[in-house]
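Q: How would the structure tokens look for this protein?
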Amino acid sequence: DSGNPNPGNGGALTKGSFTSNAVTVVWTKGSDTVTPQASLQYSVYFSLSANMNTVDQIERSGTQGVPYTTNIDFAPVVRLTPDTKYYFNVIVRDGNGNKSSYNRLTACTRKPSGNIPPKC
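A: Here is the predicted structure in token form.
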């Protein structure tokens, strides 16, 4: 055991609802050998660059869109730019401060009109 929490479902992230200025990121809750699942914390980051594959890269290059929150499996990232490609990732943190990352998700916000598909 590395001491780090394990992202759920192999670290897969999916896109939930999205608008011209928000994307909801969805994941399966992680697990840990010491911290109960209901006590694990999650934070969602976003970036305009595909440089968010490890905890270090995410914290260095990403913008925290959702602060660490206990016992969640989805979160909307708001105040995004319409018709823009974003990269998202989630960090799971246990009670000892150990962290692991999920797998990066690419998603686009809608055009302002809402009915026109995004460019990506």
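Residues 41 and 70 are 4 Å apart (CA to CA).

The beta strands are 13-18, 23-27, 41-47, 63-70, 74-77, 85-93, 99-101, 105-108.

Upvote if useful.
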